[in-house]
Amino acid sequence: MKRMLLVLLALVFISPMISIGAEKDSISVKLVWEKEIPKGVNDFVFLDENGYNVFSVQCKNPEKALKEKRLLMVQGNKLVWYEGDAMRVVKEMTIKGSYAISKNGHNIAVLEGLKRNDKGSFEDKPATLRLLNWKGEELARTQFSPGHLDYIDLFSLGNDSTVILNLSGGEGLYYTVWMFLRNGSELKKVFSSDGYIWTYAENGSIMLVSELQKKRLIMDGSGKNVGGFLYNNPRGNYWAGISPKGNYIAEVTTGKSVVIHNKYGTLISEHHVQGQGNYYGAFSPDEKYLCMTPGPWRVYFFETKTGKMLWEYTHPDSFILYMKVAVSSQDGYAFVYSQPWSCPSPDREINPKPLLSEKSVHIFDKKGNLINLFKIGDKISSLRITSDGEYLMVRLPSKLQLYHIIRGGKDETN
Fold first, then answer.
1. Would you indicate the residue range of the signal peptide (predicted)?
2. Class at the top of the CATH hierarchy for domain 232-343+355-377
3. What is the rounded average pLDDT of the residues 154-179?
4. Is residue 376 pLDDT above 90, yes or no?
């Protein structure tokens, strides 16, 4: 049935705003804002008036924030603040070193003073770790020596307090994770362990640390161990995600399994993965649903609380390279972006340029029905939805696009 629907869709013109099916059940998108990304931008975040990412659960009024349009961008060696539809520059600040913006946009961690020696590892000289707020104001700092380390990954939990470092050395022979907490104007190291942090909750409530491929530690934002779990055999990790409020943890592990735990580490469900590569997933903002792409061409959709798979979908074009997903709350609409690896050749008795091999966003309802799709002219690097389910953000290589999500064929935007 799904394959037939896709064939029918291929015969009609697909525009950025269409509706399919009965009006009350239809869903479409309308492009309401588009802007070129300034040259040299490495990272960016939309912020509300309180300094929270508009596409995080901590933003209380996404619609208001998107009308005001505050953006913080990392542009070359600068933090640049923009405002308004025209993206007027209101502030700039030079950063000297590596950086990490928290998922909720509220903090920026900066590591300065790193220099590599002739062997490629860092020199044994003091480096400065700084924690900034969303305005660029320094909250705390500390110094440490990165001598003999090969790589340092930086994380900020966005709670005005916690900074985490993944450290590796010996050409990958050892990994160590350090956690720092703010104490006045200083950052104090409160935790150190073999292993590394996989990911953390959007609101900074918990993080997931892997130890020696078997053991997973679940820690809160203050460094307290609140749970964990252990695999009988070593399991690497292709993808790990924590739900926005920190109540659920999902992994795609070696052994080809999608595994879901609660925030204390209790196993909810485990499902064998049919496929390899392209591991990507997203929780709905209310944490009710989890959508996974556990391999090219495939989509799995779960009810998070029970771990029950509500539906699965296989894309008819086996030349899809990868997918990215976003899920709305309550109504459970899944927005699935697909990109082809290459177009099949005519000698394989397949249309060399089928419509569905183009870059597209497919829209599914919570029963797994494909109810709409719209084409995207370029590769998508990120796909986000607001917590109220009203707006979808698409980042293309050189553009930002903002879509209003229209249900039931009614568009109430001006």
1. 1-21
2. mainly beta
3. 91
4. no
